Amino acid sequence: MPDHDLTELLSRNRRWAADRESREPGFFTRLAQQQSPRYMWIGCADSRVPANEITGLDPGEVFVHRNVANIVGHSDLNALSTIQFAVEHLKVEHIIVVGHYGCAGVRAAMRGIRVGLADNWLRHVHDVRLRHRKRLDHLPPDEQEDILCEMNVIEQVGNVALSTVMQDAWARGQKVSVHGWVYGLRDGLLKDLQVTMDRPETVVQVFATALKRYPRQADDGTDTLFGSALDLEPDSR
Length: 237
Ligand code: CO
Fold this sequence. Notes:
- The chain has helices spanning 3-23, 27-33, 51-55, 77-89, 104-111, 118-121, 123-131, 133-136, 141-162, 164-171, 203-212, and strands spanning 39-44, 62-67, 94-100, 177-183, 190-192.
- By secondary structure, it is α/β, with parallel strands linked by helices.
- Strands 2-1-3-4-5 form a five-stranded mixed beta sheet.
- Helix 3 links the parallel strand 1 and strand 2.
- The structure holds cobalt (II) ion.
């Protein structure tokens, strides 16, 4: 990238800051004192899914964590530390896991495409696919990818809810809920996957209800909740 491109970014930034300050004098001084966002966004790193822009939120209004394929791994200290800070210090009221259709990470996991080091990270999505393959395998390929995007969100909502951070927050009586949304690149719209978890007693029920919306081809009752019996079959690679 030639330097000119970066010079352009810096001059755009100066224009943006001046414009912002003129529309709302004291904006930056106020924000510099403290942030008090009500929302935390956990989304994909994809450049087409910018949290603030999509939701019309200003700087200071949403606390953001993004990675490839919006994953919250049980031992991902980066994600867990960010959630902990958001819940315990910023006291966010809503944590929203946001996936998106057309996610390259989900597609790679679905089709067994090798991308490199990220293959290891995407095992998390691959695990979701394996666990729910009876709800996926009978669908046409494009639909499989869309549904896996949704199921990945539902699983990650469960992972956030089962984290010690959320369990401890709920045990203290803190009001904070976890939601799952999916974003459409084609229409710019967010869809609520109706998997809101707001207290520990309902986590498994909400999860099970959300999954029931995705019918299995042959219902043999072997589906499992939260990986109590992971499918350890060879993958398709
Ligand atoms: Co993505």
